[in-house]
Amino acid sequence: MPRALAYSRATEDEPFSALNITPLIDVMLVLLIMLIVTIPSATHKVSVDLPQGETKALPALPHQLDITADGSLLWDGTRISDAQLPALLKAQVAADTALLVKTDEAARYARFDEILAQVKRAGISKLAFVGHERMKID
After folding, report:
1. What is the average pLDDT across 120-130?
2. What are the DSSP calls for 84-132, one per residue?
3. In the beta sheet, which residues pair with residue 80?
């Protein structure tokens, strides 16, 4: 008996140990194509309701009140007296814009408290403190 025939007979009786992965790859490719086709396209539109009407003027720039180290006041960089401050604060309330308060770190707290009380009495509701971004820890 030839040797090739003996070899083929021996392998017919043994279990087949190699897995044929070709059908598995075919099924995976079909599933991948189906997934790609069923995913909605990325070019969908989102409707946004934009406001219609007249354009409004830009809001007025806020005024800045500076309290210097010696206690004097600056309104937008111009020196003012304590008597002028209430009238400027009333105009600020009428304009309904923000007031920025910047205090020199060498200024006395009593002076800052006095000015802040005047701002409160004037009825200013939009108030921000400027220049206090960093804090010194000794």
Report:
1. 87
2. THHHHHHHHHHHT--EEEEE-TTS-HHHHHHHHHHHHHHT---EEEES-
3. 73
Query: Closest Cα to residue 104, out of 126, 136, 72?
Result: 72
Element housing 57 (H / E): none
Give the per-residue pLDDT at 4.
53
To 10 degrees, the CA torsion angle through 17, 22, 26, 32?
A: 80
Q: Return the CATH fold of 63-130.
A: Nucleotidyltransferase; domain 5 (3.30.420)
Find all residues with CB under 8 Å of 138, minimum gap 6, and list them. Answer: none
**pLDDT tens-digit profile of 58-111?**
777 888 999 998 989 999 888 998 899 988 888 888 777 888 999 888 889 899
Domain coordinates in residue numbering, the chain: 63-130
Q: Are 119 and 127 in contact (CB under 8 A)?
A: yes
Residues 2-46 pLDDT 10s: 555 555 555 566 776 777 888 889 999 999 998 888 876 666 677
Q: 89-102 pLDDT, tens per residue?
A: 888 887 778 889 99
Q: Output the CA angle 130-96-102, nearest 5 degrees.
A: 15
